[in-house]
Amino acid sequence: MRKKGRDLLAAFRQTFLTLQNMTPQAEAEAELNAASARYSYNPILRWNPQVEDYFIKAYGSLHFAQISKALTRPSCYSCIRVNTLKSTSDAVIEKLQEIMRKSGPQNDVVGINWKENKASNDIDLDMVEKQSSLQNESITKCQIPGLEYVVFVKGSGPHEIDYGYLPDKPPKEVLVSRKCAEAVLRGAQVYVPGTMACSSHVEEGDLVAVSVAVEQPFPDGGWGLGITRGTVLQGLPTDPYHFERNGLYIGQGTTMLSRAGIFRASQGIAVDMNNRVFKLPSFYDVLEGEIFLQNLPSIIAAHALDPQKGERILDMCAAPGGKTTAIAILMKDEGEVIAADRSHNKVIDIQKLAAELGLTCITTYKLDALKAVRKRNGSSDTTTLCCNKDNNDVVNQRSDSGPLGNGVSSTTIVGSNADTTFKENVSNEKANERTYTSKADIRKNTRRMRNGPGRNQSLGGRVENSKGFLPNSFDRVLLDAPCSALGLRPRLFAGEETIESLRNHGKYQRRMFDQAVQLVRPGGVLVYSTCTINPGENEALVRYALDTYKFLSLAPQHPRIGGAGLVGRCEFPDGYVEEWLKPGEEELVQRFDPSSQLDTIGFFIAKFAVGPKDNI
To answer: Which residues bind S-adenosyl-L-methionine (predicted)?
Structure first.
């Protein structure tokens, strides 16, 4: 111990002497190097220590470090699903190329390295070579058999940005919340509600650096910001989060409001981001009804279900409707797709998306997935309008009951801000579950109304409550379960999850799975998916399903481009043992690794074949 102390003291003395002997030029260079390190994007994802140890056991130290780094960055491309009922991939590509020509050239685009991913999947080698040969194109059609309706649009990054730092004159700066920054990294602008602090004397039209305030540990063991909105930034070490912002600069933009305006306004764009660390094209209001922006693994999940024309299919946790509509399109809009979600507003969003895409086979219900199985009580009534007080007064509004046949009822939606819902993934369900609309919301959304068909002009204001469905009443069921979402990216903070919360997610999912497995008929298919890297919500759920329901078996998935699942088990310090897959099962699931060459979100898919239930 004494030797270590002497070594540290010697190192300190050497550093001090070096600084004392530096020339003015060397000091200036050192200051610029420090500024370069500060004004950059190099985030470190913080985890709960116990959770980090758990993931290191699952993936290994090096692999988990790679996953953590990948999670802090968006994918290098946007994945677009073409609505084949209205258009084709070639037509969409031609339209997008024309839009890009008008908006200017795309610089420094990068592609998906399909060749290096070949080792972890069973894609045909000829397809891999063909996909790789298209990497010099900024817009390409997917070459995976069956996924030709998927289009990739390349982005680029990370880019180094010159923020105009000069000694003793730091750039003007706007500090934004972590959730705002994650949206900006995906291509959004900086909106007023996301701003936290700002330099003094910022006027409209000023060029500003945009940095991020990430949650920090509190003495009581919790996490938070501890910063008052509207704080003045001086660019000095005494600023709040001055050192914590090192390496957390996400780009440069032009202020649309003065400092006073930013913190007085309730809405609107605060900073127009014109120089981003990651450059991804925006598809807001682009080819509405013809395309849908969706992560590649989510598209694969709908394919794994393998829906057929004329079948009755249930999407148990359907919001925001991406997989629901993908299933309906794969069925050529022939059959019945039941989309259920427990949130009133989210059900309306599904209706809007179905109307936008021109789908009529989708029926939406408000239903808690934990109550999806209806008790056999002799009644044939399964739904009631949520506004009915008398449950015996049944009004069953089907998806084709609207006067325009657009899949929703005929009441006009007023005050539903669908644009915001579709631009960002909102994790707080309670915020979306209100059943009233204030006058302020009505005025705000009236100003945002657009002419013509689309989400804001869809019909359908009321949603149906469901009492659940009879056992064995569906050919196929998709359970895209609510989860810890630890695979979504970009992510700048992960410290809120604990071992206990991760276990609770797993318990919740098992309860939903218990409902789902009862609803699939013998001979049917059940697909389970999540957007998390947590084995306790993925492989452990598969183990539970196979051990609990002997009539279930893992089924092959097509196409298969994800990696293998995790085999083995994990023993926790408290004695709890988490069982994962057994040898031979790992190739029957798909695990999408955010650090792999596919560059997707973290995702997991398991497909179960349902056998005879006679002896159950």
So the answer is: 317-323, 341, 368, 480
Q: Is 317 annotated as a binding residue?
A: yes
Quote the CA–CA distance of 265 and 385 in Å, as a whole number. Answer: 38
The alpha carbon dihedral of 215, 217, 218, 223 has a sign of positive
CA 39 vs. chain centroid, Å, equals 27
For residues 395 and 386, what is the distance between their CA atoms, to the nearest angstrom?
10
**What spatial distance separates the first Cα and last Cα of the chain, rounded to whole Å?**
65
- Tell me whether residue 169 is annotated as binding: no
pLDDT at residue 18, rounded to an integer: 53
159-277 — its CATH code? Answer: 2.30.130.10
Task: Decide if 531 is catalytic.
Answer: yes
- Check the annotation: does 368 bind a ligand: yes
CA separation, residue 435 to residues 6, 321, 438, 465 (Å): 67, 20, 10, 13
CATH placement of domain 295-374+464-610 = 3.40.50.150
**480 labelled ligand-binding:** yes
Task: Please confirm whether the linkage preceding 170 is cis (ω < 30° from 0).
Answer: no
Given 76, 361, 531, 570, the catalytic residue: 531
**570 appears as a binding residue in the annotation:** no
Question: Tell me: the pLDDT tens digits for 23-80?
Answer: 666 655 555 566 678 899 999 999 999 999 999 999 999 999 999 999 999 999 999 9
Please give the angle made by the CA atoms of 541, 308 and 608, to the nearest 5 degrees.
20
Please provide the DSSP assignment of 586-607 as one string. Answer: GGGEEEE-TTSTT----EEEEE
Q: What is the pTM of this model?
A: 0.80
What distance in Å separates the CA atoms of residue 499 and residue 482, rounded to the nearest whole number? Answer: 17
Q: Is 319 annotated as a binding residue?
A: yes
What three-state secondary structure class fits 375? coil
Q: Where are the domains of the chain?
A: 159-277, 295-374+464-610
Determine contact, residues 369/512, Cβ cutoff 8 Å. Answer: yes
CA distances from 560 to 58, 144, 401 (A): 22, 9, 38
